[in-house]
Amino acid sequence: MKIRLDRTVCDGFGVCAKHAPGYFSLDDWGYACLVGDGTVPDDDHDSVLRALLDCPVHAITEMGDRIPEAAHPFSSSAEDPAENVKTESNEAQWGFTR
Ligand code: SF4
Question: What ranges does the record give for the region Disordered, renumbered to this chain (predicted)?
Fold first, then answer.
């Protein structure tokens, strides 16, 4: 798991440092700082996830793994890129939001 902290969003509630003090510290004004590079080993996953979920302003996000180029639906390796274009005829495949 890899996390990211957006300090521009942090409101200084301090919940993250309470749940996962090894990954978040608070500065003199109570705003969070990420300790380390955001890499979270499996042993600490639960406490960091708790901090992520309890942050009232969603300043902490989990970084997703990159989708391999070949598996991406719009990759250049697809045989016909036009197959992935959203049209009314394939609306059921891509959703009902417009
Ligand atoms: S829980 Fe969220 S708002 Fe509170 S200090 Fe941590 S990052 Fe900032």
Answer: 66-98
Residue 70 in any domain: the answer is: no
DSSP the chain: -EEEE-TTT-----HHHHH-TTTEEE-TTS-EEE-SSSB--GGGHHHHHHHHHH-TT--EEEEPPPPPGGGSTT-TTSS-GGGG---GGGHHHH-S--
The answer as to whether 15 is a domain residue is: yes
Q: Residues 79-95: pLDDT tens digits?
A: 676 777 888 887 777 77
Question: Which atom of ligand 1 has the smallest separation from the CA of 32?
Answer: 5
Q: What domain range is 57 assigned to?
A: 2-63
Average pLDDT over residues 9-17: 95
Mutate to test the pocket of ligand 1, among 13, 19, 54 (most ligand atoms within 8 A of CB): 13
Q: What is the pTM of this model?
A: 0.69
